[in-house]
Amino acid sequence: MISVVSKTLYEKVMVPTYSPAAIIPVEGKGARCWDQNGTEYIDFAGGIAVNALGHCHPALVDALTRQANRLWHTSNVFANEPAIRLAQALTNVSFADRVFFSNSGAEANEAAFKLARRYGITTGGSEKYEIVANTNSFHGRSLFTVSVAGQPKYSEGFGPPIEGIRHVPLNDVDALEAAVSHRTCAVVVEPIVGESGVLPAEQAYLQRARELCDKHGALLIFDEVQTGMGRLGTLFAYEHFGVVPDVMTLAKAIGCGFPLAATLVKEEFAGHLGRGTHGSTFGGNPLACAVGEAALQLINQPDVLDGVRMRHSRLVSALKALGTRYGLFSDVRGLGLLIGCVLSPAWKGKAGDVVNRCLEHGLMVLQAGADVVRLAPSLVIEEDEIDEGLTRLAIAAMTLQRS
C-alpha cells in the first residue's frame, strides 16, 4: 500500500526529534521554493545558512552530476581526487595547512575538540584537558558538542555531561581571563552566536582569546559552521575580525546543501590526530567534495563577497524601517547575510509565531531563540527577490499588528 506523502505520514514514521512546518517543499530554484500544492515561497532561511548559492545552482548540479557518473564512494581506505583538490583549495585560501573532512558541523567540531584534548594532554600532561566555551553557544548534537555548548536544554537527560568544560559569557573578557589557565587545551568561539540570538563576538574579545591561548599553550578554535563560506562578506569570519585561529570548523554552506564538513588545522597541530586516532566512513566522499570544490570557486569571488555586504545594507535598512512601522522589531543586528531581528517587548517570546505568520504569507524565515527572527538567505539572492520577500514580511507584520 502506497501512503500519501504528508505531514501526517511524517508524524507516523519519523522519530519525533523535530516539529517541522505544515508545508512540505518539493522544488527550489534560486531563492524561491514551491510546496506540494504549488505555492511559492521566498526563502530568507537558506536551509539555516546552508544554501549559500540558493536552490539547485546550475554549476553545483553539474558538478554533482559529473561526479555521480564517475565515482560515488570508496571510503578512506583510498584517497579520491575531489577530496584532495578541495583540501588543497581550502588550505590555499585560509590560514590552515591540513584538512579533515566529515559530514556535519557536529562531526567537524567533534574532531576539533578531540584534537584539542589530545594536543593538550600530549603537550601539557593529563590535567591539560579543559575547554573554555561560551554559554548559550551551539556546536552540534553529539554528547561532546552539547556539553561544550553550555545549553542545558540540549544536554540534560543524557547522563553526566563531558567533564572539563568551562563556560563564560560571550564578550566578557574578565570572565574569559579567569577561566583560561594552564589546564586549558582550547578556547572555542562562534564568531557570531547564531542559535541563541545572532550575537556577534567583539574583536577585543576574540583578540584576548588569541592572546590567552598563546600564553597558556591552548588552541583557539573558531566554529565557523554558520559564519564561514562568505556569509559575512569575507570568505571566513576570522578575516572580518582580523584574529586567526589554530583550528576552524566548516559545514553548512561548504556543501551548499550536500552533506559536507571540514576541520581545518595548522600544520603544527594536525599531527596530534595521527593514524587511527579519528576517522569517518563517509568523510571526504567524492560526491560531496566535488560539490564543495565548485561551491568554493563560486563563493570566493569579489563580486559575490562584495554583494553580500551590499545585500546586508539593503536588507538591514528595510528591516529597521519595517520594524519601526509595525512595532515588530526593536533592533536589527548581525553581519553580512546572518541577520537577527530582535522582537519588540510586545512580541517578546513569540518568534515562533512570527515565523509561522511569515510562512502563511509566502516567506521562509527562521528563529534564533524565542525573541529573535533570523535571516540567512542565499549570498546571491536577487534584488527583486529581496524586495518581494520584504513585501511579504511587511504583510505578515501588518496582520500580526492587527491580531
Short description:
This protein folds into two domains: 7-56 and 302-402, Aspartate Aminotransferase, domain 1, CATH 3.90.1150; 71-299, Type I PLP-dependent aspartate aminotransferase-like (Major domain) (Aspartate Aminotransferase, domain 2), CATH 3.40.640. The chain is 41% helix and 18% strand. By secondary structure, it is an alpha/beta fold.
Give a verbal description of the structure.
The chain is α/β, with parallel strands linked by helices and 403 residues long. The chain has 2 domains: 151 residues, Aspartate Aminotransferase, domain 1 (Alpha-Beta Complex); 229 residues, Aspartate Aminotransferase, domain 2, CATH 3.40.640.10. Helix content is 41%, strand content 18%. α4 runs parallel beside α12 and α14 packs across α15. The mean pLDDT is 95.
Per-chain topology:
Elements (H helix, E strand, L loop, with lengths): L6 H7 L11 E5 L2 E4 L4 E4 L2 H4 L8 H11 L12 H12 L5 E5 L2 H20 L5 E5 L8 H7 L2 H4 L9 E4 L4 H7 L4 E6 L2 E2 L5 E2 L2 H14 L2 E5 L13 H5 L5 E4 L10 E5 L1 H4 L15 H14 L2 H25 L2 E7 L2 E6 L7 H10 L2 E2 L1 E2 L4 E4 L7 H20 L1
Parallel strand pairs: 3-15, 5-6, 5-7, 7-10, 10-11
Antiparallel strand pairs: 1-2, 2-3, 4-12, 8-9, 11-12, 13-14, 14-17, 16-17
Helix pairs in contact: 3-12, 4-12, 13-15, 14-15
